[in-house]
């Protein structure tokens, strides 16, 4: 097997740049990288490997000969361009919410439901779940396999990079403005985020439920990825003034009893997880530790004394990595492992 021709749509964004770093770190066999973005970025140079690659505006012909395309340019862009790329035989791994609810498009977290990847053979699109959902299901899957989940209540503490580069820029500028006694303004977030906490991520759902769309993504995507269609899940998603790393306080109820020690043992054995749980020595997950790491960090595991078979825990992960870029590259690796993409070495995308 030789390498692949890989397009990244959204290459200039927070997730797109991380995708390039993750491809390099994991030695994913890239023969040619095709960085794509909007017309605003035409001609921009990005570092990749030992050299530079030039960004081009997305177009149908930009996907010619590609084996894989990693999309991270928002749902509208994905809806427009994923079918165009897929029609040329390219496997699209999409980070947006555009296709996550479509039954014939798999929604994949490699540690949890890798067996669903072949479902992508028909439409050649695979959806990458929401960042907060990914880290939660990675941690809950081994516990569910042992004790069967009955209900989840989750509160999130989400970094501004979840809103992309504009979220990072806005927090940086607001901190600087406020520290220099200047008025601060906001546009990426509906309120000032610096020195504040906003219990509102994405729009409020149109159904009058009071939940936001981000919260409903956690409900619906968790049910789908874990294959528990009627699992009761209640989420509160909160934006905090931190640049990188999402955290979650998770309360989970199970059919069978599961002690904190048993949970720690199961989590230590599970792929993609680091257990940090030694409160006596002040060791527990924090976004400061998870940011830049590939693993989902789990700790503060304790029995929920208010209900039968309940556990509480705290989960942190790097939202740009496991929450987006790393998960997408792991899906690409699965496609290769399963022989669904096979580079032929000349970058023609023919999948011999
Ligand atoms: N940030 C996270 O933690 C996270 C996690 C999971 C999933 N996601 C999803 O990943 C996607 C990107 O997020 P991000 O955080 O990387 O956002 P971002 O930093 O704002 O980057 C957006 C990227 O999309 C490109 N783009 C925007 N409009 C375009 C258009 N009309 N045509 C072509 N390219 C266009 C931008 O190109 P220009 O530079 O040319 O404007 C940029 O490369 C979103 O769907 C988001 O929901 C993000």
Provide a compact summary of the structure.
By secondary structure, the chain is of the alpha/beta class.
Architecture overview:
This protein is 29% helix and 22% strand. The chain is an alpha/beta fold. Strands 5-2-1-6-7-8 form a six-stranded parallel sheet, with helices on both faces. The longest helix is centred in the middle third of the chain and has 17 residues, at 131-147. It is globular and about 60 Å long. NADP nicotinamide-adenine-dinucleotide phosphate binds at residues 10-16, 37-38, 40-41, 58, 72-75, 77, 95-96, 131, 161-162, 164-166, 319-320, 323-324.
Helix percentage = 25-40%
One letter per element, helices H and strands E, the order comes to EHEEEEEHEEHEHHEEHEHEEH
- What would the average pLDDT be, to the nearest integer? 96
Q: Please give the number of β-strands.
A: 14
Please, how many helices? Answer: 8
Q: Tell me the structural class.
A: alpha/beta
How big is the Rg? 20 Å
Low-pLDDT runs: none
Number of domains: 2
Quote the beta fraction.
15-25%
Largest sheet: 6 strands, parallel
CATH topology of the largest domain: Dihydrodipicolinate Reductase, domain 2
CATH architecture of the largest domain: 2-Layer Sandwich
Give the arrangement of secondary structure elements:
Blueprint: E1 4-9, H1 14-25, E2 30-37, E3 45-48, E4 51-54, E5 56-57, E6 68-71, H2 75-87, E7 91-94, E8 125-127, H3 131-147, E9 149-157, H4 165-179, H5 213-226, E10 233-236, E11 246-254, H6 260-269, E12 273-275, H7 287-290, E13 296-303, E14 310-317, H8 321-337
Parallel strand pairs: 1-2, 1-6, 2-5, 6-7, 7-8, 9-10, 12-13
Antiparallel strand pairs: 3-4, 9-11, 11-14, 13-14
Helix pairs in contact: 1-8, 3-5, 3-8
This protein binds NADP nicotinamide-adenine-dinucleotide phosphate.
């Amino acid at each position: 097997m030789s390498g692949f021709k890989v397009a990244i749509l959204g290459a200039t964004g927070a997730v797109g740049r991380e995708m390039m770093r993750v491809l390099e770190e994991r030695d994913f066999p890239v023969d040619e990288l095709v960085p794509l973005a909007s017309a605003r970025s035409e001609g921009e140079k990005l570092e990749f490997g030992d050299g530079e690659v030039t960004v081009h505006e997305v177009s149908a012909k930009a996907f010619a000969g590609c084996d894989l395309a990693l999309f991270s340019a928002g749902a509208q862009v994905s809806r427009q361009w994923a079918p165009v790329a897929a029609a040329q035989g390219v496997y699209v791994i999409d980070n947006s919410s555009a296709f996550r609810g479509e039954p014939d498009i798999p929604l994949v977290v490699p540690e949890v439901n890798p067996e669903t990847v072949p479902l992508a053979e028909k439409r050649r699109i695979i959806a990458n779940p929401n960042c907060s959902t990914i880290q939660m299901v990675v941690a809950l899957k081994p516990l569910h396999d042992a004790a069967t989940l009955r209900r989840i209540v989750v509160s999130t503490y989400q970094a501004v990079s979840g809103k992309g580069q504009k979220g990072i820029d806005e927090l940086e500028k607001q901190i600087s403005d406020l520290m220099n006694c200047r008025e601060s303004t906001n546009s990426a977030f509906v309120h000032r985020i610096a020195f504040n906490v906003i219990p509102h991520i994405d729009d409020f759902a149109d159904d009058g439920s009071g939940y936001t769309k981000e919260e409903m993504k956690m409900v619906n995507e968790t049910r789908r990825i874990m294959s528990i269609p009627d699992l009761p899940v209640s989420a509160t998603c909160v934006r905090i003034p931190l640049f990188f790393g999402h955290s979650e306080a998770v309360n989970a109820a199970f059919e069978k009893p599961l002690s904190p020690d048993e949970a720690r043992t199961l989590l230590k054995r599970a792929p993609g997880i680091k257990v940090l749980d030694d409160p006596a020595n002040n060791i527990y997950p924090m976004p400061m530790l998870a940011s830049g790491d590939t693993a989902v960090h789990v700790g503060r595991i304790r029995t929920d004394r208010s209900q039968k078979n309940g556990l509480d825990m705290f989960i942190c992960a790097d939202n740009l990595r496991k929450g987006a870029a790393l998960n997408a590259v792991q899906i690409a690796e699965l496609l290769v492992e399963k022989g669904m993409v096979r580079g032929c070495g000349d970058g023609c995308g023919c999948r011999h």
